[in-house]
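Let us practice reading a record.
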Amino acid sequence: MDLDPTAMAPNEMDHLEEFTRFVRSASSPETQARNGVSSKKTLREWLDLAEAYRITQALKECRGNRSAAARTLGIGRRTLYAKMDKLGISATWRVGS
């Protein structure tokens, strides 16, 4: 089994796309509306998006090694697993050559 660091589950891509739109549109409500970002999200929802984005980036940087990703994030491995579960982030494995 090889870990494909570029493969991501659809819900993980949703987190990344929504967070990217948010970052790009943070300047004004008009820009938010144009980019399809809802300003009606709660602070907790925005924090969850930011957390999901950073966790996914750390996993990509560490080529799926969750222990290394946890170290990079400055959190424990069990904390990373709990956050991944809460945010719907899963390890994506691909059987390949």
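A brief commentary: Residues 25 and 34 are 8 Å apart (CA to CA).
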